[in-house]
Amino acid sequence: MSEPSEGYVLRLAPGCRLNAPGGQEDLLLLPEGALRLKGPARAILELCDGERASRQIVEELTRLYPTDDPGRIETEVMALLSRLRDRGVLESV
């Protein structure tokens, strides 16, 4: 798994999008299907807008979840970004 640099600016790859907010469950729609999103995954992906670097995404999640351990947030966010980038869901700008 390739670890994205903290300076990478990420966005959803062509053909990938989030379902409309407020549905029964959060989904990441892919050309070959869909991924069910759990926990803060939707919030993380909404921040992958092609303007924020990975470090900024981690900082924003740390602000959104101030009672959680910042180190754990960073580890989990970077792991999710790595997995999705490896699957071709995210691309570097």
Can you tell me about this structure?
This protein is of the alpha+beta class. It has one domain: Outer Surface Protein A, domain 3, CATH 3.90.930. The protein has helices at 41-46, 54-64, 70-86, and strands at residues 9-12, 17-18, 26-30, 33-37, 49-53, 90-92. The strands form two sheets. It has a three-stranded antiparallel beta sheet. It has a three-stranded antiparallel beta sheet with strand order 2-3-4. A hairpin with a 7-residue loop joins strand 2 (17-18) and strand 3 (26-30). It is globular, with a radius of gyration of 13 Å. The two termini are 19 Å apart. 19% of the residues are buried. The mean pLDDT is 92.
Give the helix/strand class: alpha+beta
Q: What is the CATH level 1 assignment?
A: Alpha Beta
* Total number of helices: 3
* Residues in helix, %: 25-40%
Largest sheet at a glance?
A: 3 strands, antiparallel
What is the CATH third-level topology name?
Answer: Outer Surface Protein A, domain 3
Which architecture does the CATH hierarchy give at level 2? Alpha-Beta Complex
Instruction: Please state the overall shape, judged from the principal axes of the Cα atoms.
Output: globular
The percent range for strand residues is 25-35%
Q: What is the terminal separation in angstroms? A: 19 Å
Q: How many domains, in number, for the residues? A: 1
Along the chain, the helix and strand elements come as: EEEEHEHHE
Number of strands: 6
Give the strand order of the largest sheet, numbering strands 1, 2, ... along the chain: 5-1-6
Contiguous low-pLDDT stretches (5 residues minimum) are none
How much is the average pLDDT? Answer: 92
Radius of gyration: 13 Å
